Amino acid sequence: MTPTLEFRDIVKTFGSGSTEVKAVSHISLSIQPGEFVAITGPSGCGKSTLLHLAGGLEPPSAGRVLVHGRDVVDMTPNQRAALRRTDVGYVFQSLNLVPALTALENVMLPLELDGVAARHARSHATDALRSVGLHEQLSRYPDDFSGGQRQRIAIARALVGERRLLLADEPTGALDTINSDQVVELLASLASERGVAIVMVTHEPRFASWADRVVFMRDGKIVSETSPDFGESVSAAVTS
Amino acid sequence: MAVREGLLALLQAEPHYGYQLKTEFEQATGGVWPLNVGQVYTTLDRLERDGLVSVRTGVDDQKLYSITLAGASALGDWWHAVPADEPPPRDELMLKVLMAIEDGEAHALDVVTRQRAALTELLQKRRRARSGESDGSDVAALLVTDALIVRAEADLRWLDVCESRILSMNAGTHRTRSAHRTRSTK
């Protein structure tokens, strides 16, 4: 099976000469369809940089980043932008929902910007909102929802269409514990039931523990990881 | 152990037979605190001896236990008591990390890393057990699992703090085992 995301001996440096900082140092990591991986480590360990590299937001200084087997490094800027629009979804601590648009319109937005016809965009957006349990509240505005529900809308927007890779950077950072638990549980179920590969950066062990595999970073390197412990249910979701 | 107070709390609601107390105690504690029926009767005998429960004959000549006024008072004291200050923590995880620090930064970080991965796996297992075990109606079982999860989280947080402190330690000021030995032999 082709991994959804693969890092091959990735290096990322910032600055040069005496001010050079190696944010990511020779990391190789493979994430399978339907796998939920949490990346954790102390501040400045390079975990967010790794996420930016995964989505082509930053080019690596060396090494390869493959998304669905396609090398992001070799892509033209237009191809990378297309990859971000169609294959990779992002969820951040700040939700960036448009307050003047309804939940449905917010989720439709990336598809419409990509030129998808409104009818199809509406259908895909409704499906995405259904997958996060908000399909009965399509015409409400972001301010009408709780913080946890707004994060669900952001997740739906990140997944709308056929995107099979979700990159989440501290997605629970602005939420209380109960809402955070619900959001991370949702991510876990999207991975196991819909076969979405999810990479979540978090500094909270509580939320990392929802993942199938937890990767620990320090000083730009992977220092350890828990055993991957998933299989039958994910494979079934992916192949069905 | 708080079995004695747990039995009094159950008796506060209504009189119970011994075996009934065993079953209800185990249900109330989410199934993680099994009681030997002999332990229940021994505890009840002591409670009766101390005047905290009374016994009368119930159905089929079985002993039916009730809480006394003195028992209700003792239970009230227990509800209101707060845990006394504990001695300094001396668990194995702490000892392991402290000894590793004495052995140098690299070894200390290695120990922290290994312990963290193992504890995270434990947390993953407990999380999954909770997800699969209940529809949410057994509050006692959920709270017991929550307690286990929260304790593992606390240990993980402590390991995070250890890592930060170890990384920020100034090598020149760190007292290594060898330096300590040198000083102590002078």
Description:
The complex is a heterodimer of chains A (240) and B (186). Chain A is of the alpha/beta class and 240 residues long. Chain A is 36% helix and 25% strand. Chain A has a domain at 99-163. Chain A has helices at residues 47-54, 77-86, 103-113, 118-131, 147-159, 177-194, 205-208, 232-239; strands at 5-14, 21-31, 36-40, 62-67, 70-71, 88-92, 165-169, 197-201, 213-218, 221-225. Chain A is globular, with a radius of gyration of 17 Å. The model of chain A is unreliable at 230-240 (pLDDT under 50). Chain B has 186 residues and is mainly α. Chain B has two domains: 3-80, Arc Repressor Mutant, subunit A (Orthogonal Bundle), CATH 1.10.10.10; 92-185. Helices cover 68% and strands 6% of the residues of chain B. Chain B contains eight helices and three strands, in the order H-E-H-H-E-E-H-H-H-H-H. In chain B, a hairpin with a 5-residue loop joins strand 2 and strand 3. The longest helix of chain B is centred in the last third of the chain and has 30 residues, at 139-168. Residues 174-186 of chain B have low confidence and may be disordered. Chain A binds chain B through residues 42, 185, 203, 205-206, 208-211, 214, 216, 218, 223-227, 229, and chain B through 109, 113-114, 116-117, 119-121, 123-124, 126-127, 131, 149, 152-153, 156-157, 160, 163-164, 167.
Short key terms for the protein model shown above:
heterodimer, A: 240 residues, alpha/beta, 4-stranded antiparallel sheet, disordered C terminus, B: 186 residues, mainly alpha, Arc Repressor Mutant, subunit A, 3-stranded antiparallel sheet, 8 helices
